[in-house]
Amino acid sequence: MKRILRLFSGFTLLVVGFILALPFVPGPGVALMILGLVILGEEFPWARRIVDWGKRKLESIRPSGSRQNNPPAMD
Fold this sequence. Notes:
It is built from four helices and no strands. By secondary structure, it is mostly helical. It is flat.
């Protein structure tokens, strides 16, 4: 029963997020789609791959903390 509820909520969030992400429709569509993919990632490898891909992309565009806090030394 818990698995069915998780699948239903994941797919529901994915579909509602997609509808809200359409142009001229206000709402947090992308956030709902991400949440739906995270929930579905527990059950489906394809959803887990999408979440992992998104994490890698986010880490590649976000500066690391060591470079940001420690500027290069001028010799």
